[in-house]
Sequence to fold (239 residues):
Amino acid sequence: MAVDVRLVPCLADNYAVILREPSTGATAVIDAPEADPILHALNQADWRLTHILVTHKHGDHVQGIPVLKQRYGATVIGPRAEAKEIPAIDIKVGKSDRVEVGKLRARVFEAPGHKSRWVGAIRRMHRDEQGHTHAGVEILSKKPLSVYFRGIGEGAERADNWQTSSGSFEFTFVNAIILGESATSGARHEVLLKRDGFTPGLIYEVMMGEQAPNVRLEELLDRGDDYDRVRVTWLKRGA
Fold:
């Protein structure tokens, strides 16, 4: 079954996914971090929103719901256990419940690891004889740490920093997710960067307080649709 998909950047570091089932015109957005970018994408595609599928209650996933609901009257579907904290929820679902958007059908599965901030990547997808789509997910880290990197050194200055008219330096900060099981940052040797963000040998300061450590990008381990997974070496401050 054909499905039209739009990936919509929201806020500073989030996304919404719009799915449209062409035969019925049923259109769903998965999470609503903010309304304006989603409205813009829908208007550009000339689609009418029919469903809002909510993965969980966090503000950066639900704060756009009231505007979208008022505009389209879309059906809001979300987790039963968090229903009290999801605006305008219409249908409450839990593990193994079925959700339908036009002719698209899916089963709900719970990912309790989200509360511990797991990070994963979809590695494989297939459609069974009934036309249901299944995905295989690889867990990259159970205790990721979201930080900002600030480029230092000659390479970083050419790439990410510039000098203002006053002569002082300003910096472009890079979003990064440090992967690993340990709470000790020095034991984590892999990070996620935005796709095409890997430059071998580039050194960053990790913005984690006054004694921020440095990391050097060493090797590109994996490249996904929107990320680079990179091996790093931790350096002493000033190295």
About this structure: Helices lie at 35-45, 59-62, 65-72, 153-160.
